[in-house]
Amino acid sequence: MQVRFGVLGPVAAWDATGAQIDIKGPKHRAVLARLVIAHGRVVPVGHLVDDLWDEPPPGAVSAVRTFVAALRRALEPQRAPREPARLLVTEGPGYALRAAPEAVDAWCFAEEVAAAATAAPYEALALLDRALSRWRGPAYAGFDDEPWARAERSRLAELRLSAIERRAESLLTLGRAVDVVPELDAHVAEHPWREEAWRLLALALYNTGRQGDALAVLRRARQLLLDQLGVDPSPRLHRLETDLLRQTDPGPGSGSAERVWAETAAAYDRTVAAGSRARLDSTVGLLRSLAVAGPSGLEVARVQRVEAIAAAEQLGDPELTARVIGGYDVPAIWTRSDDPAQAARIVAAAERALAALGPGSSDGTRARLLATVAVESRGTRGARGPEAAQEAERIARRLGDAGLLAFALNGAFMQTFYHAGLAPERDRIGAELIALSARHGLPTFEILGHLIRLQARSALADFAGADGHAAAVDQLAATHERPLVGVFTRWYAALRLAATGAPPPVSEAAYRAAAAQLADAGMPGVERGLLPLALLCLRVWHGLPADFDDNTDWGPYAPWALPLVLLARGRHAEAASALRRTPEPPRDLLLEALWCLTAHAAIALDEPAVMRRAQAALAPAAKELAGAGSGMLTAGPVAHHLDRLAAGLAY
C-alpha cells in the first residue's frame, strides 16, 4: 500500500496502515493542498509564497521550505536523512507531489465519473457509487476563500452534482425509479437551479405511476426559473412535459432495454432453480453472445465455456453435455487456437459425448459435436479433424438446417490447410457462408464468410475483391455490434499497403498501428508474435536484414524466425543448427509464410535438402501471395520465393 491523500473534505493524508498522518498546522495543509491541485506539476516556491500570504513576511521562502521539510518527515517517516524524497520532490524552481493516480481521492473521483459516462448502467452505477462515497465534506474544506483553491473547488463541486444526477439516471435506466425519488427531492431542494435534476425527478415520479406529481414538478421548475432568474426552461424540460401529457415514452426507465434485461434476469433467478439443467442450457446461449461482444467478453466466455462443459459432464447426462458443447457455435476465423490445451480438452469432451450418445440421439446433436471437433482441432495434423468436418457437413446438408450447416462450414474452413495453395477452396466456403447466412438471417456467420473471402482474395492478390469484403464486414459489424471485427480489417489495411508496393517503412508503421489495436483484444492466439512476424516477412521479401531486439517476443513463430535472426547477427553455425531443428509449419493461415522464411534461411545457409522440402511445399501456392491468406501480413509472391529456391538449387 501507499500514502493516500484526501481533499474531498478537510485536507488529510493516511499512511499504508490507514492511520491518519499528522500534517501539523494550516500552512502545512495549504502547501499540500496546493500541490495536489497542481496534479503532479511543479509549483515554484514564489507561487507558494504568494498563495500562502496576502503580504508575504520576511523569510517567507525559508518558511515554505520549513513546511515542505516537515511534510516530508510526516509523509515518509522511514526515509533516511540524505535519501531523496519520493513523494514531495524538489524539481527546478519548486516542488511537486509525485503521488500515484489512485492515491488522491479527487483524482480517483474524477476518473471514476469519466469512466461512468461510457459504461453500461450497472457498471456506471457501481462507479458513481464508489466515486461519491469518497466525499467527506466540501472539497478543500478550510480553504474556501483562497483564490488558488476556488477554481478547483468549483470544478469538483460541479462534477459531484453531475455525478449525483448521472447516478439517478442510471437507477432510472435500471428500473429503480422508487429509489431515485427521495434522493432527487433533496437534491433539487438544495440546488434549485439545476434543470437536469428537475427533469430526472419528474421522470422518476412518472415511472412510479405519479403522473400528476411529475407534471407538478415540471411546472414548479418553470415557475421558479421564470420568477427568480427570468429565463424559460430548456427545450429538454419542455419536451418532457409534452411527452408526459401525451403519455409517450419519456426516456430511461420506461421500457428501456436495460430495465427489461434487469427484470428478466431477476425473474429468471427467481423462477429457474439453481443447479438445474435449464441453467446450463441457458448459460451456453449467454456465453455465445458474450464471446462476440468484445475483448473482456471473449476471455470470460472462453473460461466459462470449459466450466460449463465440466458441470454438464458431472451431471452424467450425455444429451445435456452434447447440447452444452455443441451449442457454443461461435464463428472462428483464426486458425491458431487462443488456448491449445483448452481446445484439446474440449475436443476430448466432445468425443466422450459422441461415444455416450444413445441410438435415439438426433443427427443434429451429433453434427454439432462433430463440427466442434473440427473447429477445435484447427492447426493439428491428425485425420480426425478433417473427418469430423466432412461428416458434420454431410449431416447438415441432409437435414437442411441452415444454422448447423454454417457451423459445419466453419469446421470445414478450419480443415482446409492440409497443403499450401488452398485459397480458392476457402473462397468457395466463404461464398457459401455469405449466401446461406444472408438468406437465413445469420449475421455472425455472414461476417465470418466475408472475413474468409477477404483472406482468400488477398492470397490471390485480388485486392479489389478483398476491399469489398472488408467494407461489407465493417458495415455488418457496426450494425450488429461486433467490435472485434475491426481488429481484422485494420490488419488487412496494413497488409494491403505492404502487398501493393508501399515502401517498407510505411508498411512497418501500418503494421505497428494495427498491432496497437490488437493489444488487449482478448485473442492471444492472434496477437502473440504477430507483429514481429509481419515485420520479418516484410524484411525477408525486400531483402532487408532480420535485425530484431533480443527481447522480441516471437511467440509460437520462434522456430521459423530464429535462423534468420541468427544469420543477421553473423552467427551462421547457430543459424544452421536452428534451421535443422525447424519443424514443418502448422497447417494454418500462415503455412506459406512460414515456409518462405524457412526457404530464405535454407538458401542463405546452402541447405539443399531443406530447400527441396520448401520448394515442394510451396509449389501448389505458386500463384498466391505468401501469408496474405491470413488477411494480416505477407512475405510477397510465393513465385518470388520459388524462383529464389530454383536458383539456389541450381547453383
* Biggest beta-sheet profile: 3 strands, antiparallel
Strand content: under 5%
Name the helicity range: 55-70%
- Mean pLDDT across all amino acids: 91
Radius of gyration: 32 Å
Q: Give the terminus-to-terminus CA distance.
A: 67 Å
Structural class: mainly alpha
Strand order of the main beta sheet, please?
A: 3-5-4
Give a structural overview.
Among the domains are: 4-129, Winged helix-like DNA-binding domain superfamily/Winged helix DNA-binding domain (Arc Repressor Mutant, subunit A, Orthogonal Bundle); 495-650. The protein contains 30 helices and seven strands. It is 65% helix and 3% strand. It starts with a strand and ends with a helix. The mean pLDDT is 91. Strand 4 (88-91) and strand 5 form a beta hairpin. The chain has helices at residues 26-37, 45-52, 60-75, 105-116, 121-132, 147-173, 177-190, 195-207, 211-229, 235-246, 257-271, 277-291, 295-314, 318-326, 340-356, 363-376, 384-399, 402-414, 423-440, 443-459, 463-480, 485-499, 504-518, 524-527, 530-541, 558-568, 572-581, 591-605, 608-618, 638-650, and strands at 4-6, 12-14, 43-44, 88-91, 94-97, 625-626, 636-637.
